[in-house]
Amino acid sequence: MAVHGWFSDRAAYAAMLPHVDRRGFTYVLPDLRGYGEARDIPGSYTTGEAGGDLLALADHLGWERFSLIGHSMGGAVVQRVVAAAPHRVRRLVGVAPVPASGVPMEGEQWQLFADAPDRPENRRAIIDRTTGGRHPAAWLDLMVRHSLEHSDPKALRAWLDSWALEDFHEDIAGAQVPVRIVVGAHDPALTAEVMRQTWLRWYVNAELVELEYAGHYPADETPQELVRAVEDFITADE
User: Fold this and answer.
1) How far apart are CA 222 and CA 183, in angstroms?
2) Number of domains into which the chain is organized
3) N or C: lower Cβ tally within 10 Å for the chain?
4) In the prediction, which pLDDT does 236 show?
C-alpha cells in the first residue's frame, strides 16, 4: 500500500507506476479522506483515523500481512498502522516521511502552512522550497494545479493539525518491523539528520537512503531511483 502526502491524492505515485514490477508486486494506492475519489468522504482527517482506514482496506482485500509506503504526511499515517497492528506490517518504507513526533513549526513558517489550503501561492512556495528551488515554473504550476483540483481545503487544514502537531512516537518506539527511510538530498526540512534523530532512534531495524537528485518529492523527481529503493528493500529477505 502506497499512501500519499498532504498536497496530493494517490496520483502522487503516478510517475513511478510505469517502472514498478507488476509481476512481483501488487500495489494499492488509496485516496485518504478529503482527497481524490475520497474527497467528499467526511471524517476527522487525522493520521489515526487514516491508519484505521488502511487496516479496513487490508481486511477488504484479504491481506493479512503487507508492506507499506508513506510519503511525507503518509509517513505518519503508515506508522499509525504499525502502532495499531505491528504483526500485520511486513516492511515499511518512509519517503521524506513525517516522524511520529510531528513537525514543529512556529511563526511565519506555521502561517505559511496554515494558509496553504486557501492560498495556491503558499502551496507553490512550500513545494518550491522543499525541493531546493531547482525546478521549472511549469512543474511547480502543475503540482499546485493538481493539488487544488484533487483536495478539499477544509480537510487539508484539519490534516495539518494532525500530522504536524500530534506526537505518538512512544507508540512505535522499539518496533521490530524492518524500515527503510528514503530522503532527498535537496529537501531542507525532512533531512537525513532529522531522520537520524527520530525514525532511526525509534525503530530497531531501520536504515537510511539519501537520493542525490531529489528533494521532498522523489516519486516525481526521481521515480526510477525511488522504485529501486522501494522494491529492493521489500524483496531483501526473499
Assistant:
1) 11
2) 1
3) C
4) 87
